[in-house]
Amino acid sequence: MKIAVYGASGFTGGLALAELSRRGIAAVAVGRDAERLSESADRAGAQDADLRIAGLADHAALVEAFRDCDAVLNCAGPFALWGEPVVRAAIAAGSHYVDTTGEQGYLRHVLDAFDADARRAGVTVVPGLADDGGPGDLIAALVAARLGDVDDLLVADLRRPGAVSRGTARSMAAAEGAVPLEYRDGGWAPAPADETGRTIVVPGEPDKAEVASFALPGVVTVPRHVRARRVRGAIRAEVAALFGSLSAEAVESVPERPDEASRAAARWLMVAEASDRSGRTVRGEVTGTDAYGTTAVIAVEGARRLVADGAPAGTRTPAEAFDPADLLGFLEASGASWRVEAA
């Protein structure tokens, strides 16, 4: 098995290389700069990685870089700016594709625009295998399965403010100004602007947290496999305010790589709450530490499963491509925990 990592010289790409090396999976590091790729491979302990040079503007070079790879893992964001050429090249090379995006608009575009091409090529495209979109989609599927017909489903990212990478800051800044979507009555619509001030129970905290509407990936992915009248997303109001205050200067001042102590101390938490028309409610939670490390683990495991186990060709959400409980169970070895129960 051979898996290519595009954006391997970046922070998340380096973590993906390290995870591939840890698991004994042959890695191909792809990017624009040979020196940076070599440094990243050394830092990741992946000195055996095959280094290949290909830029986003050269489709033929990208296809050739991916040609003998079973899957491509794309870590180069902001994906709305740089993701599409990698998807196209992976499909053209006959390679499965996963990425680590959390960008709502990009996710919707990939799922809609590349399904036919992926089916014709006989490959599977799974965007959004990161610490928010992956666990959020998986736990929402398990919650909805307890209810059957879902009237309202909320996907909430309830992590507190913490250290982020420059890549994450760039993605958030690139998405700033985009109106968060919600799924309502069979289609996507702008999330109501007057829904600030809502609160939600947070496990382990004495008081409810105030949340605000936000463009979470689950709003786009969950309606693909859950029949629901409404699907919406939210994050803590304080985190939404922080993202909204990002300027170009502030983004570029963010360290490329958060230090390991900050990563280990930061806890991520995805919650899904679903209710039916009678008011019966089911809640699911999935949480862990080191969001960036979790992203590398879930993205590598997703790519590995596509190669080893297969999935229907076309574009798929995480919960469509993989068994939700099984993949969440796999993350337990990396310190994650999850549960689903009546609220």
Automatic annotation (TrEMBL):
Residues of the Saccharopine dehydrogenase NADP binding domain: 3-126
PANTHER family noted in UniProt: SACCHAROPINE DEHYDROGENASE (PTHR43781:SF1)
Protein name, entry field: NAD(P)H-binding protein
Pfam annotation, one family: Sacchrp_dh_NADP
